[in-house]
Amino acid sequence: MNALQVDQVSFSFGDKVALDQVSFGIETGRLNALLGPNGAGKSTLIALFSRLYRLQQGDIRVGGVSLRRQPRQALRQLGVVFQQSTLDLDLSVHQNLAYHAALHGLSARAAAPLIEQELMRQSLLAHQHQRVRELNGGHRRRVEIARALLHQPSILLLDEASAGLDPASRLALNQHIRTLCAEQRITVVWTTHLMDEIALNDPVVVLHGGRVLAASSAEGIIAKTGHTNLNDAFRYMTQTAGASA
Ligand SMILES: Nc1ncnc2c1ncn2[C@@H]1O[C@H](COP(=O)(O)OP(=O)(O)OP(=O)(O)O)[C@@H](O)[C@H]1O
């Protein structure tokens, strides 16, 4: 069973169609790339997954549980890092996590071991008493990831997580997420418009103009289009879709 299953999801902002009959599955324990240019519909999908927006048409199943019918049970399995950071820059790393835990009704005693575990998993123990403002962009992202994983979800949604990072930090974050997948069996949805963040055997969903153009491994997509790299394959697919729209 797929960790996440999107079935015939359509979504509009007034007259503007953002997602049009979108269906795909997300593989368990892998980094799944959601690849698309600006305006493709990636953030709208993340907002639907996390129930920031309500489903208009179709359904999303999280570990087999319908987001439409059993939203609480489905949401429990998801951790989300949104494009815009919501960390409090003047609180320490630890305080940010403790505040989040308290907001979600966890007692300080229950939260302490969870915070400790996440600080360890994200290699942030040494930074826990630093104010977030003092951290570099890569470490700030890790704090957000730690926060998203505090309630021990099995699926982590990352919306353009590497945006704004320098190339070395981008690569380090991508590697870090891959380690989380491999060692902790966490399922990751990684939205991006950058091909170099995608490995050949990653499951990829190509989204363009609110539609799914392809969903298979990166190498499968490359082979299917007859190109030699994902960049060219992607350009070919989006130009063809643009021409036939
Ligand atoms: N609040 C909104 N009101 C009206 N239209 C919107 C709104 N949010 C998004 N859209 C439109 O919906 C479409 C999908 O946008 P979305 O933000 O999901 O794309 P994206 O792939 O995440 O792009 P980006 O990388 O720029 O965030 C775009 O055409 C966008 O202009």
From TrEMBL:
<protein>
    <submittedName>
        <fullName>ABC transporter ATP-binding protein</fullName>
    </submittedName>
</protein>
<keyword id="KW-0813">Transport</keyword>
<dbReference type="InterPro" id="IPR003593">
    <property type="entry name" value="AAA+_ATPase"/>
</dbReference>
<keyword id="KW-0536">Nodulation</keyword>
<dbReference type="InterPro" id="IPR050763">
    <property type="entry name" value="ABC_transporter_ATP-binding"/>
</dbReference>
<dbReference type="InterPro" id="IPR003439">
    <property type="entry name" value="ABC_transporter-like_ATP-bd"/>
</dbReference>
<dbReference type="InterPro" id="IPR022467">
    <property type="entry name" value="ABC_transprt_ATP-bd_su_PQQ"/>
</dbReference>
<feature type="domain" description="ABC transporter">
    <location>
        <begin position="4"/>
        <end position="234"/>
    </location>
</feature>
<dbReference type="GO" id="GO:0005524">
    <property type="term" value="F:ATP binding"/>
</dbReference>
<comment type="similarity">
    <text>Belongs to the ABC transporter superfamily.</text>
</comment>
<dbReference type="Pfam" id="PF00005">
    <property type="entry name" value="ABC_tran"/>
</dbReference>
<keyword id="KW-0067">ATP-binding</keyword>
<dbReference type="InterPro" id="IPR027417">
    <property type="entry name" value="P-loop_NTPase"/>
</dbReference>
<keyword id="KW-0547">Nucleotide-binding</keyword>
